[in-house]
Design a protein that fits this description.
307 residues; alpha/beta; Arc Repressor Mutant, subunit A; Rossmann fold; 2 domains; disordered N terminus
Length: 307
């Protein structure tokens, strides 16, 4: 549940829709930042990052107070807001306040959803609709060339450590299980503390880590990625925002939205990324894949495991 504190399936007919360009779509703070952050200059990135990292206090600052905290002039703050597509500082900080509300505790998220609920039946449909939008966004933005590159690195790695703890352990377990089925030397860290530290002691040059955490990011997952990179391992992040601390630490990152009316967030889009990566692995080295799965196939044909 600790991961939930940090975070907050079917396509309709027709091509994927890029939600960033959808007519009439009112982009929120998070969407605007993800669309424009990489295009901002360093000073303006600092403004955005400060607001995002200090939401509890920054959303109540005046433009001059925020400028003083970041160490820039007020004009830079205003231009940052405009570069993100806001009309001015007022609209920018109001949108950030909305983002702050979305990053509240599970209890507060659930209470807010209950207050605005249209009823249980419509809420169920709204939840599914959000899943569809997350997948549409992923389909519009995912880079298949990056998946191929990551898959080839996984194939060449001496060892692969997948780190996703607390709620994200469902994702790390799934990826770990699949990688082992393909005959790869994979390990999974699904809990923190001593077990995670023990995994990190054996990670070094020639190895690869996939770190999975969302929203603000779990401290142990972020720390593990930092330690793995310092030890010489190649690091890949699966997260949901350019502002995630993993983005700065890891060699590369893949984004997938977890937006959901549920207090747990949704892992439908991140799981779709994992499945796409697995399919890419199958096609990058078909002979190795078939050889590994051939061993498992004997169990399907003669074993007692299946009905």
């Amino acid at each position: 549940m600790a991961d939930v504190l940090s975070e907050r399936g079917v396509f309709p007919a027709g091509p994927p829709v890029n939600l960033m360009e959808r007519p009439g779509h009112d982009q929120n703070f998070r969407e605007r930042v993800e669309a424009h952050y990489q295009k901002l200059g360093k000073q303006r990135q600092r403004v955005v990052k400060y607001v995002n990292d200090n939401l509890k206090t920054s959303v109540f600052l005046t433009v001059n107070q925020l400028a003083e905290q970041v160490g820039v002039d007020a004009a830079t703050v205003v231009r940052t807001a405009q570069d993100l597509g806001f009309r001015g500082y007022g609209e920018f900080i109001e949108s950030a306040r909305g983002h702050f509300i979305e990053t509240l505790t599970p209890y507060e998220i659930a209470r807010r959803e209950i207050q605005k609920s249209p009823g249980p039946e419509q809420s169920a449909l709204d939840s599914v609709q959000q899943e569809i939008e997350n997948l549409q966004r992923l389909a519009a933005e995912i880079n298949p060339k990056q998946l191929v590159s990551v898959a080839r690195r996984i194939r060449k790695a001496n060892r692969i450590l997948v780190v996703g703890i607390d709620l994200a352990s469902t994702l790390s377990d799934h990826l770990f299980y699949t990688l082992q089925s393909l005959g790869l030397n994979a390990l999974a860290a699904t809990s923190g503390g001593g077990r995670l530290r023990n995994h990190l002691t054996s990670i070094g040059k020639g190895d690869l880590m996939i770190a999975i955490t969302f929203r603000r990011g779990l401290r142990e997952t972020v720390g593990a990625a930092q330690a793995a990179r310092e030890a010489g391992a190649y690091t890949v992040a699966l997260t949901d925002s350019e502002l995630s601390p993993l983005v700065k630490i890891c060699h590369e990152h893949i984004l997938a939205s977890i937006n959901s009316p549920s207090f747990t967030g949704s892992y439908v889009a991140p799981l779709a990324v994992i499945n796409a990566l697995v399919v890419t692995l199958l096609n990058c080295d078909p002979s190795h894949t078939l050889k590994a799965l051939g061993k498992i196939n004997k169990e399907f044909e003669t074993g007692q495991r299946w009905c």
